[in-house]
Amino acid sequence: MKERIKGANPYMPLWEHVPDGEPRVFEYNGEKRVYVYGSHDIAKTEYCGKNYVVWSAPVSDLTDWKCHGVCYESNSILYAPDVVQKGDTFYMYVAEEKGSKVFVASSKNPAGPFVNPVKTELGFDPGVLVDDDGRIYAYWGFCRQYCAELEDDMATIKKGTVKENVIRHSVTSWSPKDGFEDEKDAFFEASSLRKVMGKYVYIYSKRYYTPHPEYGVYEDCNGFLSYKFSDSPLEGFEHGGDISLNGGELISNFDGSKQMTYRWGNNHGSIIEIEGKWYVFYHRQTGTDEYSRQAMLEPVDVAKDKNGKIFIGKITYEGNEPVKSEPVEMTSQGAYVNGLDSRKIISASFAVHLFGGKKGGANGGAGGAYIKPVYEKKDDIDAPVVDITSGLTAGFRYVQFGKTAPFSVSAKITACEDMKVNVRIDSYDGKIIVSGEMKKGALNFTSPVICDVTGLHAVYFEFISDSDNVIAEFYNFTFD
Question: Which of 120, 185, 218, 252 has its CA 20 to 30 A from that of 94?
């Protein structure tokens, strides 16, 4: 029996739906682990749900995630939380009543349960920083940004410290017309403060509302995690850049502009250093709405230039000096930095490219193919790619073939019509390494690999039929 790949992207099991994940490294009982606290998409017909769950992984292996269960429960819908440590106590900032009321609860265990909630004066999407000197700062807001210093009780705002719009906000039909709009670098939500190379780095969800063809953005888009930085925790933030975009692989058009290949949606997360390496934690969309989001991560580069400017993401250097950063690529591999093992079972739900087809659109856009959410807690479950029409490509970045070329591919595919399946490498219109036929009603696809393939490659499954109907559902694949 072949082993299934787990802990890729998404890194939690495919039945789990945890967005808004703020990662933290905590040491407890002599063990350092990465803890993720996010809201929990279990309501299914609206954002989030009425509990928080905690997942963690050892710092030595970001593919080995463990669920610690429910750490906080409510009678109201809970939006994005944050957790920090001060002394021997862990504090969870709980966003009750869809983020309109924020409480701070506490625990001696980073996995909770978090108890004794105390009302705070903080607001939507709270993010908290315990500084090196023990002072505590809080950040929050939706389409308008706030920050302040907290008293040692972790709940009370220090008198006279509240500041507004230290990061200018986005322009929307519901944002205030207060003169603090920003046309180029607009705060939307999802405040998170981290200390990086001595600087205060403000990570947030940006909302672009002007076209950015280099990112495939042609309409209002808040699929980005972005950042600014400062020498001070409550003022002086300078432009940084974009760290993450959850719109999948970007492909080039003939005019040099780009096109997303995965349906973007809201984004929330942060960066963290783990064992000397930096990562961004964010979320993607599944289904046809924003109510079944999943946790993702990517390695990122972090650097500081001679003038003190912070660079985060995919960095371009001139010599040893950083000169430019841009969003890191959205991948299927996540923490598997050498690619997904081609000889193991790879779920179709690891796709970061769902593009084309008769219905067009990317991951559910304009009725196109999408990843169907699943909720049954089974280790061998797949979240299939459904509503596949002719011309659709499903891409995986990246797959590791090793030094020995495979001789065949096997895939669990339900054929709803007669069709051809091609497997391409390196790009969605790249070299064909597999081509085979499926008859309507078939449940499995097996075909020889027609050329030697070794090393690391992007892999794309292409589905072709004369039918204008839905032609397939795609569950998983492996090479032999």
Answer: 185
